[in-house]
Amino acid sequence: MSCSSSGSLSPSNQAANAPKQTARREWKYIASEKTTNNTYLCLAVLDSVLCVIFLHGRSSPQTSPSATPCLMKSLSFEAQPEELEEHPLSPMHYARSGLGTAGLNGRLIAAGGYNREECLRTVECYDPKEDRWTFIAPMRTPRARFQMAVLMGQLYVIGGSNGHSDELSCGETYDPHADEWAQVPELRTNRCNAGVCSLNNKLYVVGGSDPCGQKGLKNCDAFDPVTKTWSNCASLNIRRHQAAVCELDGFMYVIGGAESWNCLNTVERYNPENNTWTLIAPMNVARRGAGVAVHAGKLFVVGGFDGSHALRCVEVYDPARNEWRMLGSMTSSRSNAGVAMLGETIYAVGGFDGNEFLNTMEVYNPETDEWNDCTKALSPLSD
Description:
Kelch-typ_b-propeller, 42% strand, Kelch_1, repeat, kelch repeat, elongated, four-stranded antiparallel beta sheet, mainly beta, Neuraminidase, 32 strands
């Protein structure tokens, strides 16, 4: 063979004259029934496609007792769509609340969190194409009540609580190519329930609760991954912990949370150009422990806790109008759940529903304004 300049392979004359080899196709017989003297109706699977096959036998008498009836090769194939069955989205291996969640390389990452027994080190990775959770390398430190962000292709987790001692100041970063976690320089202040966000190639840690866990903080710190140093930024207008934090169009948004025990509906926006915080339109529902995702230039705030109950309600913020509106509610109440965007879908995973810690997941379709905890897959064919 000769190789063309474009990199495509062109056959030589000898190869062109060689008999073509047909790729082997996978068949699976299901059932058949005789419809007339010379016709059979068959069901089979050909390359994962369900087919109806009509077999027409030759009506002329056989010329030899050993001859086999010749079936016409012009078979009639009618591909039938295989039935799709709904089944629940695959749950995580562990129930988790107060976990860190992020989308990375087309996968959903769920790290740490706590259940009724302990804080977790384990990290799970969800493949939406396979609807399957697998484990990746665990964190160095068990932690819950923290948030996760993606910066320069790596995951970052900062602060939180290990369930046994005071709030943590340590942080870690995950390299997906090496499947390893490495330590990052510690925060200047121990804290948990802080918001974490990447903005302009820096990692921001916002608010959180003090070492006694009694009140929120105004602190805002930025980490430079190049110099591996922390610096102070302007303080929030309002103390907050368990706020939802995200980046949109070059601004950082800090949404809801609580000052001490009272839940907030206030929202602040940070401008890194002049290092200032501005209060913008408040949410319709005061909440802490909510999740947030960005889609189509808008902020989607999911679930949380209103001081009395875990929430199912969801609302969206339009920065062009500076207004919030309510959306379709989740199928389950979830506070301190993980929320992340993959493709055109918003995922809510884990959390606490007011009675138990959850390992379940549900997805939101912005086009239909609907949440669903099921996925459709081909129904298995019986032998």
